[in-house]
């Protein structure tokens, strides 16, 4: 039979081991902190103007300092109170009393956003010059031009306010005369997906676009030659 003192030691050692394991899991690598630094845009999925916040490397106790832009308080009072951030379990923004203002986690596409049960969905993306909000379908209806940067038009695309044949989760689109590089996609529908505009074809063709100050540009993950989409004037 084990000695009582050994049993007591084992009983104490187990919680201590669990605490060490928890602490190890809670450790965040310096690379993650470094990659998170800089200016971000917080934008809701309703197309409202967003708020920029800068994540800083300076420590505030166990947290890191954060600085919201001057206009954040006018757009969202809570965001104007952000003073710190934490890389624990995604990115959390906290106020001076260490209360969580917003907590962002990666979804299956690696987009950082709030959970559905936390009110309107907010997204956290790297800030870009001239981009102050997320794409919103009602603001995108109309005719656009696809072209290479500073190049001639390749295709006219009209984003319609009605579903495509046989589909209810997206909108229809029509195309004009198109260059072969775009025509092969057989574009027929579009939708906003997170912080991207997705153009989809009747086959496997698709095109992911991200917002710019002038309109949209092809998402980096698409590869190939650069492509932009701007309003037809």
From TrEMBL:
All copies of domain Alkaline proteinase inhibitor/ Outer membrane lipoprotein Omp19, residue ranges: 136-230
UniProt keyword terms in alphabetical order: Signal
SUPFAM superfamilies for this protein: beta-Barrel protease inhibitors
One Pfam match: Inh
Signal peptide region: 1-26
Membrane-spanning intervals of the chain: none
Protein name per Swiss-Prot or TrEMBL: Alkaline proteinase inhibitor/ Outer membrane lipoprotein Omp19 domain-containing protein
């Amino acid at each position: 039979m084990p000695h009582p003192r050994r049993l007591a030691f084992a009983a104490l050692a187990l919680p201590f081991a669990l605490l060490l394991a928890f602490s190890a899991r809670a450790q965040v690598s310096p690379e993650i902190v470094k990659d998170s630094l800089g200016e971000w845009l917080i934008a809701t999925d309703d197309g409202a103007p967003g708020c920029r916040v800068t994540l800083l490397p300076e420590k505030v106790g166990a947290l890191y300092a954060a600085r919201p832009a001057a206009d954040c308080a006018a757009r969202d009072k809570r965001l104007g109170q952000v003073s710190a951030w934490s890389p624990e379990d995604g990115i959390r923004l906290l106020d001076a009393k260490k209360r969580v203002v917003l907590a962002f986690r990666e979804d299956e596409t690696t987009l950082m956003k709030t959970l559905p049960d936390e009110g309107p969905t907010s997204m956290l993306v790297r800030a870009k010059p001239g981009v102050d909000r997320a794409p919103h379908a009602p603001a995108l209806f109309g005719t656009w031009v696809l072209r290479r940067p500073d190049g001639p038009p390749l295709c006219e695309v009209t984003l319609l306010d009605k579903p495509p044949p046989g589909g209810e989760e997206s909108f229809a689109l029509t195309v004009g005369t198109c260059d072969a590089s775009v025509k092969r996609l057989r574009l027929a529908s579009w939708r906003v997906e997170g912080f991207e505009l997705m153009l989809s074809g009747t086959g496997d063709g698709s095109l992911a676009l991200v917002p710019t100050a002038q309109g949209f540009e092809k998402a980096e993950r698409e590869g190939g030659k650069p492509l932009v989409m701007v309003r037809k004037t």
